[in-house]
Write a structure and sequence with these properties.
It contains 22 helices and no strands. By secondary structure, the protein is mainly α. α3 packs parallel to α6 and α18 runs parallel beside α19.
C-alpha cells in the first residue's frame, strides 16, 4: 500500500515537472518570437534612421557648395584684377556678381520650391553650380565671368531656402535641430575645403585661378547624382500635391517609432494646416511686425560684422600685415579650420544654452576681436592680426553662424515660414553683396583700422539689440513661441505635441 502510494506520488511529480518544462519551453518560444520581432523592429528603425541621416546629409551638401562657391573666389580675385586691368569699382562688381545672384535666388527661390517640389529644386541648384564652375573657369573677359558667377549665386540663394526647409520637413522634432545643423556645418566645411584647395592650387602656374574656380564642378556633379535618390518632402506631397499615400510612406520612414494611428494623425494635421491657406493673414501685417524686424536685424548685423568681406578678402588682409601671397593663402586655410571647429561647438551648444546666449557670446567675441584688430593696424602691431582674425571667425561660428538660419526658421508661423525665411535670406545677401561691392574701394580710401573700427561699432549695436529685443527660443514649441512673440493666430491648428512630429 505504501509502495503504491509512493509510486503514485512519484508519477504525479513527473507529470508536474513535465508540465512545468513544457510551459517553460512554450514561454521560451514566445520570448524568442518577441525578441525576434523586437530585433526586426529595431533593425527597421536603425535602417530608417540611417536613411534619414543620409537624406539630410545629401540635401545639406547644397550648403557645402554654397560655402565653397562663396569663398573660392578669394584665391583668384587679385589675379583677376591684374589680368583684366580692373578698376576698384569693376573689381568689386566682378566679385559681388555672385552675391547679387544670391539676392535674386533668395528673393524668388521660394517659388520653384513650392511649385516644383523640394527635391527637383535641390537638383536644379546642383546644375547651377556646375554651369557656374565651368563657365567661370573658362571665362575670357570680366563680363562673361560676372554672368557665370551670377549663375552660381542663384544656386547659393535658392539653397539657403530649400535645403534647410527640406531637412526640417523630413526630420522628427527631436532630431530637427541637429539634422538642420548639417547645412551650416557643410557651409563651413565647404569654406575650409575652398581655402585648402586655393592653397594647393595657388602655385601651379598663371592659370591657377581657373583651376581654383573650375574644381567646384566635381562636388556639383556628385551632389546632383545623390539628389536623385532623395524622397520628396512629405509636407509638400500632402499639403501641395494632395498625394497623401506617398506622403504617409515618407512619414512612416522618418518616424519608425510611430504607430499607424499616429502616422494617420500626423498626416491629418498636415492636411488641416494646408487647408488654412485661404484664411491666413497677409505676411506684411501688424501681426508679424515683431518677427519681421527680428529676421531683418539678425541678417543685417550678420553682414555688418564684416564676415563676408573678411572671408572674401582674407589673403589680401593678411598681405596687408606683410605676409607673402603663399603664406597669406595658408593663413586663410587656418580660417577655415577655425571656422569648422567653432561651428562644431556652436551646434553642440545651441540646444543646450540657447540661441540668445550664443548671440551674447558671439557679440562680445566680435567686439574684442574687431577692436583689437583696429588697434593693431593703427599701431602697426601686425603680428597679432592673424590671431585676431581667427578669434573673430570663432566668435562668428559660435554665435551668428550657428544661430541665424535656425532662428529665422523658428520665429515665423507655419503658413509664413517660407516667406519669412526668404526675407531673412534676401536681407542677408543684399548686405553681403553691398559689403563685397564696396570693400575694395573702402580699404583703398580708408585705413584698415577705420574699417575694423566700424565693424566693431556695429557689433556693439548688435549686443544692445540682443539685450533689448531678442527672445530665447530654445526648447519652446512653435505654437507656444508664437504666443510668446504675440503672433498667434485664431486660425492656427492645434497639432499633437510630441517629440516625434515632423517640422514643429
Amino acid at each position: 500500500m505504501f509502495v503504491n502510494f509512493y509510486q503514485i506520488t512519484i508519477y504525479h511529480k513527473k507529470i508536474a515537472i513535465r508540465t512545468i518544462l513544457n510551459q517553460i519551453f512554450k514561454d521560451r518560444i514566445v520570448i524568442q518570437n518577441k525578441l525576434k520581432d523586437a530585433l526586426m523592429v529595431d533593425n527597421k528603425k536603425t535602417n530608417n534612421k540611417n536613411k534619414l541621416f543620409l537624406w539630410a546629409l545629401t540635401s545639406s551638401l547644397a550648403g557645402f557648395l554654397f560655402g565653397f562657391d562663396t569663398v573660392v573666389i578669394s584665391g583668384a580675385e587679385k589675379t583677376i584684377q591684374s589680368l583684366w586691368g580692373l578698376s576698384s569699382t569693376l573689381h568689386g562688381l566682378a566679385l559681388s556678381a555672385a552675391l547679387w545672384g544670391t539676392v535674386l535666388g533668395a528673393l524668388f527661390g521660394g517659388w520653384p520650391t513650392d511649385r516644383f517640389g523640394r527635391v527637383k529644386t535641390l537638383i536644379a541648384i546642383g546644375v547651377l553650380y556646375l554651369v557656374s564652375a565651368l563657365w567661370s573657369a573658362l571665362a575670357t573677359d570680366p563680363y562673361s565671368f560676372m554672368i557665370a558667377r551670377f549663375i552660381g549665386g542663384l544656386g547659393v540663394g535658392v539653397s539657403t531656402i530649400v535645403a534647410p526647409l527640406y531637412i526640417s520637413e523630413i526630420s522628427p522634432a527631436d532630431k530637427r535641430g541637429r539634422l538642420t545643423g548639417l547645412f551650416q556645418f557643410n557651409i563651413v566645411f565647404g569654406i575650409l575645403v575652398a581655402f585648402i584647395s586655393n592653397a594647393l592650387l595657388g602655385g601651379i602656374g598663371e592659370n591657377a585661378w581657373r583651376w581654383m574656380l573650375g574644381v567646384e564642378a566635381i562636388p556639383a556633379v556628385i551632389y546632383c547624382a545623390f539628389c536623385f535618390f532623395l524622397p520628396e518632402s512629405p509636407r509638400w506631397l500632402i499639403g501641395k500635391c494632395k498625394n497623401i499615400a506617398s506622403g504617409k510612406r515618407v512619414l512612416a520612414q522618418v518616424n519608425p517609432h510611430m504607430t499607424d494611428s499616429e502616422i494617420e494623425d500626423l498626416t491629418q494635421s498636415i492636411v488641416n494646416a494646408a487647408n488654412t491657406v485661404g484664411v491666413k493673414t497677409p505676411f506684411w501685417s501688424q501681426r508679424l511686425k515683431y518677427p519681421i524686424i527680428l529676421a531683418f536685424l539678425i541678417a543685417f548685423f550678420n553682414q555688418l560684422s564684416g564676415i563676408n568681406a573678411i572671408l572674401y578678402f582674407a589673403p589680401r588682409i593678411f598681405e596687408m600685415t606683410g605676409l607673402g601671397q603663399e603664406a597669406a593663402l595658408l593663413q586663410s586655410a587656418g580660417i577655415g579650420i577655425t571656422n569648422l571647429i567653432a561651428t562644431f561647438v556652436g551646434l553642440w551648444l545651441i540646444d543646450r544654452i540657447g540661441r540668445r546666449t550664443l548671440l551674447y557670446i558671439g557679440s562680445v567675441g566680435y567686439i574684442l576681436a574687431l577692436g583689437r584688430c583696429a588697434w593693431a593696424f593703427a599701431n602697426e602691431v601686425y603680428a597679432i592680426v592673424p590671431f585676431c582674425i581667427f578669434f573673430f571667425i570663432a566668435a562668428h561660428a559660435v554665435g551668428q553662424g550657428a544661430v541665424i538660419w535656425v532662428f529665422i526658421a523658428e520665429i515665423f508661423p507655419t503658413e509664413h515660414r517660407t516667406t519669412g525665411q526668404s526675407l531673412g535670406c534676401s536681407t542677408h545677401w543684399v548686405f553681403a553683396a553691398m559689403m563685397t561691392l564696396f570693400f575694395p574701394t573702402v580699404v583703398t580710401v580708408f585705413s584698415p583700422q577705420y574699417v575694423f573700427g566700424f565693424f566693431c561699432l556695429m557689433m556693439i549695436g548688435q549686443l544692445i539689440w540682443v539685450f533689448f529685443m531678442v527672445p530665447e527660443t530654445k526648447g519652446v514649441p512653435l505654437e507656444a513661441l508664437q504666443k510668446k512673440l504675440g503672433i498667434a493666430s485664431h486660425n492656427d491648428i492645434e497639432i499633437k505635441q510630441s517629440s516625434s512630429i515632423v517640422g514643429q
